[in-house]
Amino acid sequence: MAQPRTAGSGTGFPKPAEGSWTAHYPELGTEPLSYEDSVSPKFYQLERQAIFKRAWLNVGRVEQLPRNGSYFTKELAVANTSIVVVRGKDGKVRAFHNICRHRGNKLVWTDFPREETSGNCRHFVCKYHGWRYELDGSCSFVQQESEFFDLDKKDYGLVPVHCDVWGGFIFVNLDAQPQQTLRDFLGPMINAIEDYPYDKMTERFYYRAEVGANWKLFLDAFQEFYHAPVLHAKQSPVSARPEVQAAGYEGLHYQLDGPHRLVSTTTGRGWLMAPEDLKPMERVTRSGLFGAWDAPEIGELPSGLNPGGSKWWGQDSFQIWPNFVILFWERGWYLTYHYWPTSHNTHLFEGNLYFVPARNARERLAHEMAAVTFKEFALQDGNTLEATQIMLESRVVKAFPLNDQEILCRHLHKVTADWVDDYKRKRAEA
Amino acid sequence: MSDALLPSQFSDLERYAATWCLPTERQRFAQRIASTMDEMQAFYDAFFPRAEEAITYCEKFPLDEMPEDAQRLLQLLYSLVMVSFPVEVWRQPHVPDSGAAYLDLVLEPTP
């Protein structure tokens, strides 16, 4: 008699006792997935309210505010606003809606009102009528104040946005009253990586692109590696291709914690590989997609890394709800991804690579190799997304099977539905 | 005194300097897309065997105090990394199937 097939069973890495990662989290189910949540303009309008106006959102890092008076703006089209984030005279980081209280002009911008900007100032002055705001948001000057009627400047401070800092990452929450503190929202799995030495990794490569796909499709693309041996096959040296594709892909460890999720994987160890299995430029720079082979000294790492405790550990990709990813490589560097929706079928992708600053040209060149390689891969991923979006919108097919290595995609779409349902329920009750 | 862009021991690479000594990734990527495979192959073939020598030359200096000719040599190395993908992997200037996709590097370390 034939044995029942277990998802992903094979000769690979151990799976939970239930037989699959997906079965370990039974609330996920194993049904084919509808991608209606990625093609429906109506659903997108619900996401804006239910998710992006209620969840904590990462908008930058403290290094972007090096001094008191440093500020940057962030366009949050998904929430229909722009915010300004500023380090006050007291050193505290605050966020405000970027709107002048007088007649609604955008307060902080340079040349182009839709573009982000940054700088350093002692106070903010509106370009329109010269109203002035201190770095704590209070209104301190009104042009021709006596012309107004019963106006008290105290009532006309900038509209604050809830703001908190975790691991040097600046988060905001656009809810009038956030349902959770930032740390409660992040939960134990994410809080266990707060102590990573982010502050040592200040050499930054910052990429942006507008992508013609729903924001969740790009999250899906980078939260499963089942695609890697196929989509990126040509990036392997010819001699290694059949082996890479036949081996397929298995994650080392998957973990869910509330709305957040994690996949751990192995890594390429270039310094142990046969020269013919490497690109010549990898050999010269001693670097590649997985980072510089010669890792910097960064001290002890937080307990939250490699939570599966695998001896083959090479990478953790923490998917922080809703649109923020921190990816740690074993070679002592990290990346972040952000996916900012701009419509139901477009979003702005931001990728940041962070390294311990190079001390010399050899180290710097190794970082260049990692960054250029990252872009080569990301360009392949980006175009595939648009191709997916186009055909999902045909609605010819309405149910898509996900395998055990795609558990995180399943989880993302479930959390999305849960948050939208919760919002609808609370709105009905109100 | 000459108009050399590169340190004298790399004078044989001068003919590539004007094209490939570019300070930003955006410029290097644009140059790659605007180049033919023959042009990139010639640059790669001339420079790749000397890459280690060039790295050794550049790393003698602190990164923030590199003489201008060494900085340009480092930029030439960045360009070698850039063309290594078309030359070693793709056999074409573009990333295959990347179509209209783009990814702009809007902030990068200097040098």
Question: Can you tell me about this structure?
Answer:
- The complex is a heterodimer of chains A (430) and B (111).
- Chain A is an alpha+beta fold.
- Chain A folds into 2 domains: 260 residues, Alpha-Beta Complex (Naphthalene 1,2-dioxygenase Alpha Subunit, Chain A, domain 1), CATH 3.90.380.10; 121 residues, 3-layer Sandwich (Rieske Iron-sulfur Protein).
- In chain A, the strands form 3 sheets. In chain A, strands 1-10-9-4-3-2-5 form a 7-stranded antiparallel sheet, with no helix packed on it. Chain A has a 7-stranded antiparallel sheet with strand order 11-17-16-15-14-13-12, with helices on both faces. A 3-stranded antiparallel sheet of chain A has the order 6-7-8, with no helix packed on it.
- Chain A is globular, with a radius of gyration of 23 Å.
- The relative contact order of chain A is 0.16.
- The two termini of chain B are 26 Å apart.
- In chain B, helix 4 packs antiparallel against helix 5.
- Chain B is globular and about 40 Å long.
- The model of chain B has no long low-confidence stretch (mean pLDDT 96).
- Chain B has one domain.
- Chain B is mainly alpha-helical.
- The relative contact order of chain B is 0.20.
- Chain B is built from 5 helices and 1 strand, in the order H-H-H-H-H-E.
- Chains A and B meet through strand 11, helix 7 and helix 8 of A and helix 4, helix 5 and strand 1 of B.
- Strand 11 of chain A pairs antiparallel with strand 1 of chain B.
Q: What's the β-strand tally of chain A?
A: 17
Largest sheet of chain A: 7 strands, antiparallel
Corresponding CATH superfamily of the largest domain in chain A: Naphthalene 1,2-dioxygenase Alpha Subunit, Chain A, domain 1
Mean pLDDT of chain A: 93
Amount of helix of chain A: 10-25%
- Most residues in contact, chain pair and counts: A-B, 40 and 39 residues
In the predicted model, the low-confidence regions of chain A spanning at least 5 consecutive residues are 1-11
Structural class of chain A: alpha+beta
Oligomer: heterodimer
Overall geometric form of chain A = globular
CATH classification class of the largest domain in chain A:
Alpha Beta
| Biggest sheet features of chain B | none
